[in-house]
Structure formats: C-alpha cells, structure tokens
Amino acid sequence: MPHNFGDFRATGTVYLVGAGPGDPELLTLKALRLVRAADAIVYDQLVSPQILAFARTGAQTIFVGKKPGAFCCPQRDIEGTLLRLAREGKTVVRLKGGDPFVFGRGGEEAEALAAAGIAFEIVPGVTSALGAASYTGIPLTHREHSSAVVFLTGHEDPKKTDSSFRWEDYGRLDATLCIYMGMKNLESITRRLQAGGLASDTPAAVIQSATTGAHRQFVGTVGDIALASERAGFGAPAIVIVGNVVRLASKLAWFEANRAHALPS
Ligand code: SAH
Fold first, then answer.
1. Which of the residues 23, 44, 90, 96 is marked catalytic?
2. pLDDT, tens digit (0-9, with 9 covering 90-100), for 178-212
3. Which of 206, 239, 237 is nearest to 224 (CA)?
4. What is the pTM of this model?
5. Could you tell me the pLDDT band of residue 19, with boundaries at 50, 70 and 90?
6. Using an 8 Å Cβ cutoff, are 85 and 42 in contact?
7. Structural domains in the chain?
8. Distance between CA 263 and CA 35 in Å, rounded?
9. What is the CB < 6 Å shell around ligand 1?
C-alpha cells in the first residue's frame, strides 16, 4: 500500500489499437472511441493525420515512427514510453497502422506490458493487405482461383539468417501471397518464388499507399513485377499480392475507376 495516499494514482491502461490501412473510415468504432478518450497517443508514421485529428484537445501525441532511412526509436524505448505513461495513470493508446498483431510488433509490446503488470487491451484493425486487396478489386480467396492466403514479410529481422525463410517453398503453395515490406527485396523474392516452381506468368500486383488519397496500383506478372514496378516509380509503403486472383483486378478495380470518374474538386 502506498505510504502517502496523496501521491497515489492508479496505473493507467494501454490500448494497442489498429488504425487500419489509411482511409480513416476503415477505423473501428472501438478504435475511434479510444482515440477520442486517450490522455496520450503513441503513434507510428503510417497512422493517418486524419485519425490523429480525432484526439481530444490537450491529449499528448507522441511520434515513435521510423522515418525512411533514419532510425528513430528503438523498440525498447517505445515500450519504456508506454510503461511510463501508464504508470503516470494515463489512458494510453498505442496506435499502429493496420493491425497491431500483423507485422506490427504488437506482440512484443503486449509482452512488455504483461511482464510489467500493466493492464492492456488489443483492438484489431484492418490490416493493409486486406485494405489493399479490397480497394484494388482482388478477392484474396475465390472458389475458382485460390483457397488459401498467406501473409509474409519481405523484410525480416536482420538477426535471422537468410535460410530461415524459404521463399521457394511459398512458390509451391498454390495460395494467394500477400507480401508486406517487400519492395526492397522484390527482385530476389520473385526470383526465389519462381525457383520454387511458381509460373513466371502468375499475375502479381503492387499496391502503394492503399486506401489513401495517394493509392496507386500496378499489375504485372511474377516474372516482371519487380523491374516494371520499380520503373513505374513504386515504393514503400506497398503490399505485393501474388496469385491467380490478381487477374480479377482488371474487372473489379472499383477504387481507381471511381477516382478516374470523380469530378475534379
Ligand atoms: N501492422 C501493419 C503492417 C506494418 S509493417 C498492418 O497490419 O498493415 C509496414 C508495411 O505494411 C509496409 O511496408 C507495407 O508493406 C504495409 N503497409 C502499411 N500500410 C500500407 C498501405 N496503406 N498500403 C500498402 N501497404 C501498406
């Protein structure tokens, strides 16, 4: 029991919240309620400013994202920030792009909170592969084309050895592949998928800044997508989708079509 009741303040709760892929309307009602109520919001660079604008006046907003090419915040510091804010009795929202448990290091942050005995909740978000697929008109499964979906990262923890990730095996899966953080290594990834047996004419798409005003999509084949998308100026943040379902984008690409027909504002 604290010896001085005047100093006592209950520890706050940390909410690990998915902000979705970009379009603020893809935020869940629960995420919106928590963002509005938070005393402190600790956010990444992929969180849209329109979502941060929902924070209440006076809420503390703390950026912990990594700027491209620069190193901002070691994971241990981010975890330390969450613990400190909670111990100050604050309601903390840790806002992450997409879903906190899909390549978002939400697991590590939840582990740190659990180890420190801080109360936490996880609020799922629309992960960017789902946002990219829907807005590009690529059904990730389809009774005629694909019965399985895999989420993969093209950029592993540098501490892991190369052999721990066998792209050749994924080339044999006959599944839709959704590759996060794949742009830098796309040439080698697509080469290794083909070495595993994936036909070079399998359709592939790169979707950059999916669901946002800057959304761009590029469709090619596994054989040519790396070079062709680079030549077309595509880069991170982008999702690469590989599989026969990508063919449907030529019929179902509603988002680009609607934008093309929209009157200039
Ligand atoms: N937790 C996030 C993923 C974070 S890793 C999620 O669930 O989506 C960061 C990677 O996510 C980026 O390199 C990119 O591959 C992908 N990404 C995030 N937002 C994106 C967007 N709007 N469009 C395309 N890819 C996106």
1. 44
2. 999 999 999 999 999 999 999 999 999 999 999 99
3. 206
4. 0.93
5. very high
6. yes
7. 13-126 (3.40.1010.10), 129-258 (3.30.950.10)
8. 33
9. 21-22, 46, 96-99, 102-104, 127-128, 132, 180-181, 207-212, 236-239
